[in-house]
Each structure stands twice: as structure tokens, then as C-alpha cells.
Write a structure and sequence with these properties.
Structural class of chain B: mainly alpha
Shape of chain B: elongated
CATH class of chain A: Mainly Alpha
Structural class of chain A: mainly alpha
Helix content of chain B: 55-70%
Shape of chain A: elongated
CATH superfamily of chain B: Ammonia/particulate methane monooxygenase, subunit A
CATH topology of chain A: Glutathione S-transferase Yfyf (Class Pi), Chain A, domain 2
Strand content of chain B: under 5%
Distance between the termini of chain A: 28 Å
Strand order of the largest sheet of chain B: 1-2
Radius of gyration of chain A: 22 Å
CATH architecture of chain A: Up-down Bundle
Largest interface: A-B, 80 and 74 residues
Oligomer: heterodimer
Number of strands of chain A: 1
CATH superfamily of chain A: Particulate methane monooxygenase subunit c2. Chain: C
Strand content of chain A: under 5%
Helix content of chain A: over 70%
CATH class of chain B: Mainly Alpha
Radius of gyration of chain B: 22 Å
Number of helices of chain B: 10
Largest sheet of chain A: none
CATH architecture of chain B: Up-down Bundle
Number of helices of chain A: 8
CATH topology of chain B: particulate methane monooxygenase, chain B
Order of helices and strands of chain B: HHHHHHHHEEHHE
Chain lengths: ~250, ~250
Amino acid sequence: MAATTESVKADAAEAPLLNHRNLWAGITLYLVFYSFIRWYEGVYGWSAGLDSFAPEFETYWMNMLYIEIVAEVILFAGINGYIWKTRDRKVMSITPREELRRHFTHWTWLVCYGWAIYWGASYFTEQDGTWHQTIVRDTDFTPSHIIEFYLSYPIYIITGTASFMYAKTRLPTYQEGLHLMYLIAVIGPFMILPNVGLNEWGHTFWFMEELFVAPLHYGFVFFGWAALAIMGVVNTEVMAIAKLLKKDLA
Amino acid sequence: MSASQSAVRSRAEAVQVSRTFDWMILFTLFTAVLGGYHIHYMLTGGDWDFWTDWKDRRLWVTVAPIVSITFPAAVQACLWWRYRLPVGATISVVALMIGEWINRYLNFWGWTYFPVNICFPSNLLPGAIVLDVILMLGNSMTLTAVVGGLAYGLLFYPGNWPVIAPLHVPVEYNGMMMTLADLQGYHYVRTGTPEYIRMVEKGTLRTFGKDVAPVSAFFSGFVSIIIYFLWHFFGRWFAKTDFIADDNL
């Protein structure tokens, strides 16, 4: 009886396996932020984003670009630096329950990564297509590019690297070495950002019709395939979690 | 592992943990596949998918199935061969189409004011369902590639026919014969797509004047078979769980 009481007390004091608040806060954060961004595009794309030589373009779009680049560098360094600095140096000694808890935290990161990939690779990338069908581009930094390339892509890169860093520094599963598919799932989509260099370089040569299927865009396609590597991460995670739960699900 | 070292405290908790992971995994897989598949599809077949005046009887019918059978084949290679879940193709296509519909409505219409009936996405669902059903019943990658791949190509046009047929009605405008879809494109000027780069109805003096769509679908099915094989193995590769040594980086 006494042991049961102690156990109940321990349960009450223990952190939950999954911190639901963090999970929903993460999902909501991206949703609210990108809703705001979409509203900003809707208003200032038309009123200040049509002519890159206009002073209002500098005010509403170029300043946004400068701010977001600085913020992203700080966020990238801050989040990944924090995860690295607070790493567990005895990661192989944790209890199974703690390991399970960390898998949940890891999946909170992965959920945010998937969510961020959706916004970057799907929502803002196809959106760029319709913007180019509507205005004449006179700069690399069109309103849609300032959001797509220089905001939504860095955000999923930051989320992905943080997720990878969390797994590598806190989960015994990933101490064997470097998980190849995890690397591809993070580095592949990351490479879409440097590939912007090829894209913009190509567009500087001529006034290019926005044929979306033009070979100039195939770099994005190739690196987009890397999102499939999430399947390798899922498989590894399923094996690790099944091992933790096997006894009780048998 | 001793009783006190168990990761969970009861079978009920184990089941609950397992279900919670299922949802988190499904969400992540769904959104990641959506992102990768969407960027792939929009940049390999997007122009035919964006606009009704690109949705012709020849190139749309040929290109869309060939470039869209890719991710379904790869995801099947993971979900069926590892978990016996016969939903890989359908889940990929549902993900893609959700992403497309959100975009066409909120951005094509909501930001740049193209009516949805000029920019709705192609329907890929019938072919995806058939792919999954053939894999489930046959349990064979080869059968799914050959029969499913061919069906995927052949079903594309009939699967889109109910929605595209009204827009292929001929009209005369300023003394010229065109389709209603062409007329939509004529009125909704797109600065990035001048008429001379529109890839539709290519060819002159065609032998099969009235049979373009079925011939194109048949050809598309043929190539889809090959692409299915290729992407099945891509999918298997991407599903690997290998580690490389830290010092190999």
C-alpha cells in the first residue's frame, strides 16, 4: 500500500510523457505567424510590391527581408546552440521512461518540421507561381520570394536542424552514428535554399516567362524528393518506440 | 528491463502512447510528403495543372500521370512493404490535392483573383485508389507497376472528364474557333505565360485527329509503368534505417 502511495505521488510529480501544450503551441505558432504573413502579402503585395524601384517597396519589402534574415540567423544560432549546450552527456544511461518522454519531445519537433515543410514547400512555393503570373518581375526580391525563399525555407531549415540536433543529443537511438535518412531529410530540403542561387542566376539572363516546368527549376524538384527520407526516420522511430513498448503491448 | 524500469506503467498506457505516436507520425508523414510531392509536381507538371487552357487532350493527359505516379509509388514501398498499410498512393495524392486546393483557393483566387474554375487542380484520386487496391489484392510490386501503372495513366482523363468536359465545348470568338477553356485563358491574361509558350495540342496534320486523348493516355500509362518501378526502388531506399559513422561526415 505504501509503495502504491509512493508510486502515485511520483506519478503526480512527474512531467507528462507528452507535453500537449508545447505540441499545440508549436502548431499554432506556425499557423498564426503564417496567417499574419499571408495577410501582409495580401495588403502590401499589391500596394507596395509591384515596382521594386519605388520607395514604398524599400519600406515594406526590403526592410522585411533585412529583418527576417537577421532574425533567422539569430534563431538558428540560438535554438541549435541551446540544444547543443544543454545536451545530455550521459544519454545512454537514461531510464526507458525518460527515453520515451524524449521520443515524444522529438516527435513534437518532427510534427513542427512537417508542418513547416508544408508551409514552405507547398503553400508559399505554389503561391509564388500565381504571383509571377500576375505582375512583371523586376527584381530577385519580389514579395513572394521574400516570403517563400527567405522566410518559409529558413524556418523549416531551422526546425529541421533543431529536430535533428535534439535526436542526436538526447536519444540513445541516434548514438550509433549519423542516421543517413535523417541527414537527407534535413539537408535535402535545406539544399533548396542554396538552389535559389541557381534559380535567380538563371532568371537574371533574360526576361523569363514563368514556365513552371522549365528545367531551370529542376534543382528544386531534386531536393524536394529528399522529403521522402522522412520515411527512414519514421521506420527508425517505430522500431525504437516498439522496443520501448513491446513488453506491454504483447 | 525490470518492472520498475518499464517505459510505461500499464498496458492501457502503452496503448495510449502507441495511438498518440500514430497520430504524430501520420501528421508528420502527411505534411512532409505533401511538401515534397507538391514541389515536385508543380515544377514538373504544374503548368498543365494550374490552368484550364493548358488542360488539353494531349500533353496534360500525357504529362500529369507520368510525373504524379512518383511519390505514390515511393510511399507505397514504405507503407505496404513495412506496415501492410494499403494506403500509400491514396494518402500521397490526398495530401497533394489538399495542398493544391488550399493554394488555388487562398492564393490563386484569394491573392491574385483567378477564378477557381480556371485554376482548379487535376483529379488524381481514381488512379491512386486503383494503385492501392491492386497492391493490396496482388501483394506484388510488379503487378502493381504493370497493371496499376497502366491503369493510373488510362484513368486520368476519365477521372477528370466530368469537370473538364464543359470547358472543352467549342466556341467562336472574334471569328476564331476555340474552346471555352481557351477563352478563359484569353480573358485572364497571365503576364508570365504568353500564348506562345502554352504547350497544348501540339502537332499539325495529325493522323488520329479525334483519338488524341486515348492514345495519349495509353502512352502515359506505358511510361507510368516504368516510372512506378523506378520510384518503388527510390521509396525503398528512402525507407532505409542505416547509420553512417560520425567520422564519415
